Amino acid sequence: MSLALNVWQRVPGSRSLEILPIFAKPSIVSSNCFIVSAPAAILVIDPGASDEQTRRINDVVTGALAVSKRPVLVFLTHCHQDHSQEMDRLVLPAGTDVRRLAHDAAARALERSDRALTCAYLYPWDPPICNAPIHGRLFAPDGACEASGLSLGRGDRLEITRRPASLQDDGLGQRSIALGDGERLDLYHTPGHTSCSLSFRIGELLMMGDLPFAANPGICGLDGWNQEELIRTLPGIDHLLDSREVAICCPGHGHAVSAATMRDQLRLMREEARDLTAVEGMNAIRITGLKRYADEFLEEASALFTILSGRLYAASYYLVDEGTDGLPVPLDLDGIDSTLTEFRRFDEAFRYSTTPELSVVIKGAQAARSLLQALARDDVQRLLDPSLVGRARRRLTDFLSVVRGWPFLSAESPSRVNSVLAQLVARVKSHDDTDATELLALANDRRRFLDVLTRRLAARSPFDQVTVDYVESYRSSEAGIAAERLDDIVTSLIEGMAAAGARHLRLATEAANHQLLVRLSADITVTGEALGQRRLALYKRTLGWLGGSLEREQDAPTTFLVRLPELSQGADRAIR
């Protein structure tokens, strides 16, 4: 069961209700809108923030009023600008009785033009906040509006039935509005994304606003977001989906999904929400920093997946040349390339538009999640260099953690730098991790033979003609950086230098003012452009978070200095 776009259709589970969904292109600029035709009223849920969408709403509602003149009730799922901006811009036939309803906290935020709680500050064009009167203030502490109902034209009243939260039911505060012919609209207070978030049920439809995205990177931490409220709300929604005849869930952005799909999504969200105790709040300064970080992440991810895809394409080429059908696993290399290309185009288009910076951050988070899913496959980890796959996964996880607001670097486990670098150099010098005799032993097992052969081909090292000398000149080497993170950064620098033409590299450790210094020198001059300026900025940013730095000596040949905060300062000093 699904909802068709932009057409009137019967509301599942109802006798006389019809709905026309307007699904906006997914973005943070404007929300979906749902128009419901009922015997006693026409409902407009979340008018959005698009002039074009408002014209469409006007046409649809005007057409419905021509069939039967009724009051028009405009509801908000919450006060964010992308849902509320057009609330008072409906142009309807003269004499139309229009009433606006929202949670009391949303009404108060709109009345005072609160640019934080409405998230209006996200939009570079500085949009005006709709502060038109809210006629029905739902879930207000005094409950005055609900107790007396809502006045309509000609002396009519809209009755709002109040039912408090009940642990025997779903734990959610509920209100109901009669829509005629025995139909009703149920309203639930579902805070978490914002304190004023509401969900609406008619028939077998549940309209949830932005609650399904409340734990997503780039969304959690926005003004009004609250982890404790979210954790309390999600079990109630889960119980609602289990105990009521809800077939379809309609989010504020994107298309409708089945109740079963939404239930699975929300149960995963409950697990994520428990870990969001130390999420950093969003503000304009942090979002600008995240946008720069998204640019850096894009360049790093593109470089890593170019290597991964290149190795798999090469392996596939050689396998086909040997008379096989190519890779023994159905890896969607084109899908990976498409994900990165789409994000790159979106990022580049940002420079020539007024797209909010947060849009780029959220798009980057979506790309990171998609790429992580591709790398999580057992066959990918079996066939590719584990260190390269691990590096890519750590970069993606880091990006999602930073966007979410997790202080992930505060939990770094110290590493012994000399040991990390020695293992790194040993790996660089080892161009093949599979003994040829292994292939001979598997000659009669075609599937395992192809797996091993593919792994050999996909592990071809970019360091075939590069030598790396390691000089351990400083023995006291414990530093406040995880071994994997140090390995990732130094390996990336070595790869960049090798790709730029360096054939001899020198790696050494030394002491420098209570810091441990890692010196990486090439036999040629390597430009910043060859290594990728944004990738270098990413490494500098990451090391800076850890109390270290990345510097480049100006003299040729090229030398990079990685400064790390030293943890141990015993008597075990420079090697003599």
Give a structural overview.
The chain has 576 residues and is an alpha+beta fold. The protein folds into three domains: 9-153 and 160-274, Ribonuclease Z/Hydroxyacylglutathione hydrolase-like (Metallo-beta-lactamase, Chain A); 283-406, Butyryl-CoA Dehydrogenase, subunit A, domain 3 (Up-down Bundle); 411-433 and 461-576, Histidine kinase-like ATPase, C-terminal domain (Heat Shock Protein 90, 2-Layer Sandwich), CATH 3.30.565. It is 40% helix and 18% strand. It has 17 helices and 23 strands. It has helices at residues 51-67, 81-84, 104-111, 144-148, 227-243, 259-274, 284-321, 333-350, 357-375, 378-383, 386-404, 417-429, 436-441, 446-458, 483-499, 528-531, 533-545, and strands at residues 9-10, 18-22, 33-37, 42-45, 72-75, 98-103, 136-138, 150-151, 157-158, 160-163, 174-180, 183-189, 198-202, 205-209, 248-251, 257-258, 415-416, 467-472, 478-479, 504-511, 515-522, 549-553, 559-565. The strands form five sheets. A seven-stranded mixed sheet has the order 1-2-3-4-5-6-7. The chain has a seven-stranded mixed sheet with strand order 10-11-12-13-14-15-16. A hairpin with an 8-residue loop joins strand 12 and strand 13 (198-202). Helix 7 (284-321) packs antiparallel against helix 8. It is elongated, with a radius of gyration of 29 Å.
